[in-house]
Task: inverse folding
């Protein structure tokens, strides 16, 4: 039972790490594309910089929230496992 709990915990940590890596990569790419498009729009029409900036900031906040959601789900995967007590005793914490 203890070995299975440790294997399950190791798998959870690995999955959580991959989830955060993929979320951070995707959010970084999306923010870069959004910023590039906003700068191009302001360069073509400087009078619209106020509206473009506000829309850009709202969009960047929504994109960043996706990465935060991935972090929350990863932390839930790591710390809310049914065998958390067994793993804690095994690791001596």
Result:
């Amino acid at each position: 039972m203890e070995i299975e709990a440790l294997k399950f915990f190791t798998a959870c940590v690995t999955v959580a790490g991959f989830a955060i890596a993929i979320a951070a990569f995707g959010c970084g790419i999306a923010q870069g594309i959004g910023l590039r498009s906003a700068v191009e729009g302001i360069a073509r029409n400087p009078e619209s910089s106020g509206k473009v900036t506000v829309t850009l900031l709202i969009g960047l906040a929504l994109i960043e929230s996706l990465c935060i959601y991935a972090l929350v789900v990863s932390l839930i995967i790591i710390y809310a496992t049914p065998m958390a007590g067994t793993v804690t005793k095994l690791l001596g914490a």
